[in-house]
User: Which sequence fits this backbone?
């Protein structure tokens, strides 16, 4: 770090720290103006967004520059904070800043007066959350990493429970913080192993250690467990569908879009950077867990009836797919197949970026819908496209991107991932060779199912006829919300149409972690995405889109020219059935019913069928997560039993406690004497 | 891009637009004959399109702009699909823009839009059709992808032109994987093109319809575009199948003579293919809707099996 007095000499890291400090200051200002709602919303949040844009600019350039280090004399004596900004951190900074700029602007119009936590406090929590996300990325020793990690967990916990008067929300927050801490414990243990008894917890030291395969594997498994708890990998996904619906929409947008990726950053940092020699089964493990998570997530998201829960499960799916990509990359890395490893890693990174944008966009749209209608259940929405076009059209883009359709970012990520799966031959073990096509098939199935989910999501909320009376008065999003969503849409479009340019950003990372990149094949064809060679595979989203648009325009023009454009509006026909009502449309339950039937073993279902003699017959189906019953409740019961045994010690009388001390003293003395 | 390349691309597009309804008419005619009905004329689909384009469009009063745009989007998707599949020649300038995976993506895009459009008016039939279409789609799409991957693994490429070129050039050998993939492809094509045994294009019965339920509310030019798009889809599937499993006769270089030779070969192959489709439709009975996932699941598994056979035999 250079002299802080001369901004002209500042390096990227200094600018990033400026943004962090600015966010913290904005948070403090928010607390000072605790209940001045308009000031917080219309001044502080947009200023925060401006700093996000600054961070975006800084990190876009930092990706290409070498690592920068700094030591901050904060923290405990003898334990300063080591900071480091390399391409990997810079890439995730792009992700944070790009998404948070849009979400902060959206938040300026989102928060309403008089809901739960006062606006100023919310502003503090929100900006501390952002700052801690950045600090996790900058951390270069385990100490600051854990501090930032915990700050991130705590600030997001308070954001989740901002509506803390509702008991379900408090429960969701409790579950979240519990899982987060179990994960944090595993991460701490992982760092403990990585420093290999040297007592030096800097990442630089960890890089230089070479652990035995056993301890390296243990560290890897701990990292996958610990970071996986935050990312929502099976079976630690349980908090995600609870916490996301509980949090305010901009917060869910940040948590799903950004925080989950930061957890994946942790996996990347440990397995590719801190651990030196990768072992093949790590990749298989990560791939298996990832695909299982993805399949589980997508199947559950198709049957959800609440919109944020549906999106939360869809996030689980996407995280799973990204992990599968990381796992594949790790597998290739272990066999020193660098080009394929770089391809898989690029696919995973692309997916992270794409998911960050479209998922935060979708969460923002649920926020706008909830504000307009006060409803979060899919079954009570419908037909909103007519009343909220400013929400509906951006959501449509997000939905198409999320379904992995061309020409948007999600498709490119899946395209790259399938390419890397497809051209895997010559792995040393024939078992692995067989495994890879099966995994590719699973990915294709998952992608197709996510299309199902997204049609359900968009169709039930925005299309059809309003299922309730009051929906006809739904108001469209305000100017801030529109601006925020348009920013995120822009991100989706850029990611969809400019793959070569985006991959140029990812390239320094693959070079850093794997040792090779894709850029050399992309250099000569900026609009054509060619990962290996043009004979093998190529894709040009811009030309693709142009082709579709051109033929649309031509068809439109020719039909008008050769025939006519007459149109008459009448009541819907519906095969001549006269008594149709809005209740006859497919509900969310109905739309998911085929999947519920096909994938029945995945669910724990309870059906309550009416009998013929009921006065008011009702039919009820509940679909629950079986893992909750197979895994979590037994663990909870075990903990309760143990604590009951421990509870026997607590007698509440001082004499008994004195006796405990006495006995302990004697035992210790005996032990020392021997 | 040579002018001949551009010409062959343009030719492929025009040919798809012109021939697609003819193929539909051909299949309909044969089906009617095989079922002992008197057959409509071969040009009936064109008359139908002309009639529909002439009519005034009648639309539900609350239909959104998505509903009005969807037919154009779906039509364009199918047209683009026809443009990137090597039908006459493998020297297509548009082909590098989209490979086999993008082709599947293109079909998926069209499917999502037709389902959304079906849900837009908010009638009982529309959303029923949309749900069933997505049900068919979520299994048919990966199965199709795996079929294409079988060919990709043999040719080490996902580019459609390279696949066809390589397959046409190899010495004659029966790949067991392609055999499996071929069966899977036939099953997927039946499902994707709304044919018996998955769907029946002739019926408007609630219990059986999928595709028809979705386009029930459409009329006039919008319906015409959707019908034309359906023909284009059948044409695209037929051409893709012929190009992968019977690639002989597709021109490689763009000499006018080669193109001239390729056309009758293609017409011959399409005629046979259309006839076989009519035979399959006549011989099989419509399935219950919940048998469809089993049917398509079988196709999916067959195609994955094809991939595994490829790996086992060390092909590619």
Assistant:
């Amino acid at each position: 770090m250079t002299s802080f007095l001369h901004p002209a000499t500042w390096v990227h890291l200094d600018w990033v720290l400026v943004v962090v400090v600015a966010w913290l200051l904005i948070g403090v200002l928010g607390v000072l103006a605790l209940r001045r709602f308009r000031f917080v919303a219309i001044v502080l949040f947009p200023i925060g967004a401006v700093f996000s844009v600054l961070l975006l600019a800084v990190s876009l350039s930092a990706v290409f520059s070498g690592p920068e280090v700094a030591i901050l004399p904060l923290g405990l004596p003898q334990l300063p904070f080591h900071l480091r900004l390399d391409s990997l951190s810079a890439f995730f900074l792009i992700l944070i800043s790009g998404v948070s700029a849009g979400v902060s602007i959206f938040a300026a119009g989102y928060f309403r007066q008089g809901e739960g936590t006062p606006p100023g406090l919310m502003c503090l929590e929100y900006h501390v959350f952002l700052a801690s996300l950045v600090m996790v990325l900058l951390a270069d020793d385990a100490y600051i990493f854990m501090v930032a990690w915990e700050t991130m967990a705590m600030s997001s916990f308070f954001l989740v429970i901002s509506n803390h008067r509702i008991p379900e929300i408090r429960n969701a927050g409790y579950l979240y913080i519990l899982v987060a801490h179990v994960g944090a414990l595993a991460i701490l243990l992982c760092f403990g192993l990585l420093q290999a008894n040297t007592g030096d917890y800097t990442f630089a030291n960890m890089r230089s250690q070479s652990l035995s395969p056993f301890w390296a594997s243990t560290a890897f498994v701990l990292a996958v467990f610990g970071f996986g708890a935050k990312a929502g990998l099976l079976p630690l996904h349980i908090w995600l569908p609870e916490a996301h619906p509980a949090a305010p929409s901009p917060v869910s947008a940040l948590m799903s879009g950004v925080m989950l990726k930061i957890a994946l950053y942790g996996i990347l940092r440990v397995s590719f950077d801190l651990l030196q020699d990768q072992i093949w089964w790590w990749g298989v493990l990560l791939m298996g867990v990832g695909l299982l998570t993805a399949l589980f997530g997508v199947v559950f998201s198709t049957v959800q009836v609440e919109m944020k829960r549906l999106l939360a499960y869809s996030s689980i799916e996407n995280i799973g797919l990204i992990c599968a990509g990381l796992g594949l990359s790790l597998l290739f890395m272990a066999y020193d197949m660098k080009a394929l490893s770089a391809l898989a890693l690029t696919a995973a990174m692309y997916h992270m970026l794409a998911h960050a944008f479209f998922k935060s966009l979708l969460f923002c749209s649920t926020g706008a819908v909830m504000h307009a209608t006060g409803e979060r259940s899919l079954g009570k929405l419908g037909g909103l496209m007519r009343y909220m076009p400013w929400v509906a059209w951006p959501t449509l883009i997000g939905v198409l991107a999320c379904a992995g359709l061309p020409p948007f970012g999600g498709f490119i990520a899946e395209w790259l991932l399938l390419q890397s799966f497809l051209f895997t031959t010559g792995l040393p073990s024939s078992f692995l060779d067989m495994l890879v096509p099966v995994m590719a098939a699973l990915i294709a199935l998952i992608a197709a199912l996510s299309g199902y989910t997204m049609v359900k999501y968009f169709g039930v909320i925005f299309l059809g006829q309003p299922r309730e009376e009051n929906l006809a008065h739904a108001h469209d999003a305000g100017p801030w919300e529109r601006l925020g969503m348009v920013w995120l849409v822009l991100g989706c479009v850029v990611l969809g149409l400019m793959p070569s340019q985006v991959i140029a950003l990812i390239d320094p990372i693959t070079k850093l972690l794997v040792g090779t990149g894709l850029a050399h094949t992309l250099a000569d064809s900026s609009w054509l995405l060619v990962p290996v060679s043009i004979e093998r595979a190529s894709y040009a989203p811009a030309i693709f889109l142009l082709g579709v648009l051109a033929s649309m325009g031509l068809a439109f023009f020719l039909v008008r020219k050769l025939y006519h454009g007459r149109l008459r509006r009448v009541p819907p026909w519906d095969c001549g059935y006269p008594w149709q009502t809005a209740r006859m449309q497919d509900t969310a339950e109905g739309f998911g019913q085929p999947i519920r039937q096909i994938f029945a073993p995945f669910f724990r279902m309870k059906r309550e069928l009416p009998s013929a003699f009921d006065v008011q017959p009702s039919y009820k189906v509940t679909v629950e997560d079986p893992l909750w019953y197979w895994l979590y409740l037994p663990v909870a019961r075990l903990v309760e039993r143990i604590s009951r045994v421990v509870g026997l010690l607590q007698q509440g009388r001082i004499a008994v406690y004195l006796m405990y001390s006495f006995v302990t003293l004697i035992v210790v003395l005996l032990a020392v004497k021997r | 891009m040579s002018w001949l390349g551009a010409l062959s691309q343009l030719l492929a597009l025009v040919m798809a637009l012109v021939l697609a309804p003819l193929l539909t008419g051909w299949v309909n005619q044969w089906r009617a004959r095989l079922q002992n009905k008197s057959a409509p004329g071969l040009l009936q689909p064109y008359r139908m399109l002309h009639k529909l384009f002439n009519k005034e469009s009648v639309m539900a009063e609350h239909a959104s702009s998505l509903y009005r745009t969807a037919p154009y989007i779906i039509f364009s998707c199918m047209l683009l699909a026809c443009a990137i599949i090597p039908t006459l020649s493998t020297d297509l300038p548009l082909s590098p823009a989209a490979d086999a995976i993008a082709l599947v993506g293109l079909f998926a895009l069209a499917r999502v839009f037709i389902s959304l459009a079906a849900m837009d008016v908010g009638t009982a039939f529309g959303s029923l059709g949309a749900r069933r279409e997505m049900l068919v789609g979520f299994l048919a799409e990966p199965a199709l992808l795996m079929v294409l991957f079988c060919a990709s693994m043999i040719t080490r490429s996902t580019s459609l032109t390279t696949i066809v070129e390589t397959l046409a050039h190899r010495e004659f050998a029966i790949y067991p994987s392609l055999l499996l993939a071929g069966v899977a492809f036939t099953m997927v094509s039946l499902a994707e093109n709304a044919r018996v045994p998955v769907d029946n294009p002739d019926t408007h019965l609630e219990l059986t319809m999928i595709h028809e339920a979705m386009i029930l509310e459409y009329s006039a030019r919008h319906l015409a575009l959707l019908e034309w798009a359906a023909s284009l889809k059948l044409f695209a599937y037929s051409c893709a199948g012929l190009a992968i499993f019977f690639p002989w006769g597709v021109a490689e270089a763009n000499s006018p003579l080669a193109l001239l030779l390729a056309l009758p070969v293609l017409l011959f192959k399409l005629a046979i293919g259309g006839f076989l489709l009519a035979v399959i439709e006549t011989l099989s009975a419509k399935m219950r809707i919940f048998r469809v996932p089993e049917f398509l699941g079988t196709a999916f598994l067959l195609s994955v099996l094809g991939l595994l056979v490829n790996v086992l035999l060390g092909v590619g």
Observations:
- The CA atoms of residues 71 and 286 of chain B lie 27 Å apart.
- Chain B has a mean pLDDT of 86.
- Chain B is about 70% helix and 0% strand.
- Chain B touches chain A through 84 residues (CB under 8 Å).
